[in-house]
């Protein structure tokens, strides 16, 4: 199927920066009616203004998605402003880079709260409105949820234990809901980026003191991930590993799991060898 986004109400979380911001920019060019949310009021206002300058209908809704009251108000305000909700794109998230042995309970809980619980409850809050969209749809229209997780949700990466745990949970939820929501005519899609470049890496990291080498500077640009998000929406692709590194981990997990496991272990061994001399 081909999903036409023009005129559809799309709620994008984490829209003030990174993947969420670039996704909003692409959706604006597709003619979607954009409901954009993030915690940063000033940055949110900038992307709303940019989308409007490109001719799109856009509105900002500042919210902390870890707050039940904020989530409830956000969804109510979006539906009140636009009259409907057709697509939810979950881009909000935080990262955690560091060894589990030197971490804390607070880091684990923060990672799970933002990357899993907030996303899960956003889906729950939006479900009734997405269901209405499907029932009112014409020309085969199907509402959708796009969950932007990480390849860490398919294979655990050393020095990213908390991040991997939260993303594994998010991927598992996505797969379960894909089956549950099929009877409602709601598609649940999954995008799996690798390490994504950031203008301000520490801004969205709960911790950033990992010991193994990860090429953050040479990471894939958020524009690449945003392109996969919009393409998955339009083509209704159930799962997309985005970027060369992510695709090889995704493919290797299925075809050469022992090889991927050895590669991950070697990164740790190499670090230990360099720092033992």
Reported CATH architecture: 3-Layer(aba) Sandwich
Strand fraction equals: 5-15%
Helix content: 40-55%
Strand arrangement in the largest pleated sheet: 3-2-1-4-6-7-9
SS-based structural class? Answer: alpha/beta
Q: Please provide the ordered H/E string of secondary-structure elements.
A: EHEHEHEEHEHEEHEHH
In DSSP terms (H or I, runs of 4 or more residues), the helix count works out at: 8
Overall strand count: 9
CATH superfamily: NAD(P)-binding Rossmann-like Domain
Q: Please identify the top-level CATH class.
A: Alpha Beta
Task: Report the radius of gyration as a whole number of Å.
Answer: 19 Å
Ranges where pLDDT stays below 50 over 5 or more residues in a row are: none
Distance between the termini: 58 Å
Number of domains: 1
Largest sheet: 7 strands, parallel
Overall 3D form: globular
The name of the CATH topology is Rossmann fold
Summarize the structure.
The protein has 277 residues and is α/β, with parallel strands linked by helices. 49% of the residues lie in helices and 14% in strands.
